[in-house]
Predict the 3D structure of the following.
Amino acid sequence: MVLSHATSLRGLPPVAAPDLSGQRRYWHTLTQAGDATYSYGGSDTSLNPALSTDYGGVWEFDGTAKSWSLRDVIGETTVTARGRIRVDSMVRKSAHCAVWTGESLLAYGGAGYLSVTTNRGLKTNLIEFRPLPNRSLFQTMLSRNVSLTGADASGWPPLRYLMSCIWDSHRRSMIVFGGTLDSDPLFGDWGTSVGTSDRRYHPNQTDELWEYHFDSNTWTNLTASAKMNSLSSPSARAYHTAVWESTTDTMYVYGGVEYSRTTQAGETFRNDVWAYIRGANMWEQLVATMPTARFGHMAAATGTSMYVYGGVLEGFVLGANDCLWEFSYASKSWSQLGNSNSCFVHSASLFGSATFDGCRNKVLFYGFQDNFGRGDFFFQYGLPAPGS
């Protein structure tokens, strides 16, 4: 099914983003929790880590009132056996990933930049935000920081950021793919050893596939077994997206980038689509006419399609031909929604996040608009009624 109303990207009109007292953000997450939409974390609009500030707030969007509210987060300092640590202050994250388990929000990995005067670094902690009856959130840290160079003795994965994750409700597990590791001795500390403090340019992407088992608070490395069961598998990448199709228990991975280990800012853009079929624990590459290769885009899944918007496009100045695309699970094909005249030409939408509000049948996009830091945007794309 090809939708014909992509102009509604402008015409809905856009919905107000959270009031951040003049601050902008990117590398945050947008997660649907039934009737509510949560936005957590993110960084301000400086791409230089020395000038960046990461956020720790959890905002809730009310789709009926079209308004945002900052949720109170509480916790208590308690260290328990291996990994259950409750904290009484908000953990700041960016470049992380997040899922809704059906009862709580899980946020994994990413980076933490508190201010220009504090040390920056990766945050591998897995944090749970559990809604309470008074509308506050109870925050629990489910892991301690682990090794830079590999899984620790208990089997937790090494530090990473700019990965993707999805929630498998049938197995009550979170599947994490790809991202950037901070274990390279030459290019560690975010690539500053090669003369750049720009966080966009750092090598050591990974093709690892991990599964987190929520009820047992344990991890399984699926990388080797999935490759063994597959004819081929996706290359290492970061800045990609992944969505989950629950009917067939399939994760769809699209796009991303891999940076050169030898050439500063040298990169390989990706426009391939991969299906990870969880029941068979195998990868399958889907061949179709692709949109322009990109990274830093947004993606959200409905029951029938994946919607992709924005990103840094290969071969274009940032912001060129920034269109909305639909990938059909049934036909394994792409459709551009509308025509090039209905795209946000020269107003790139980068490093944002998207989710599907099934209660209102709308895809929500919240991100950072263009490469000059001109502001946040938040809009909703209405889908036709089922069966129309």
In short: The radius of gyration is 19 Å. Residues 1-13, 77-88, 114-119, 184-200 have pLDDT under 50 and may be disordered. The chain has one domain: 8-382.
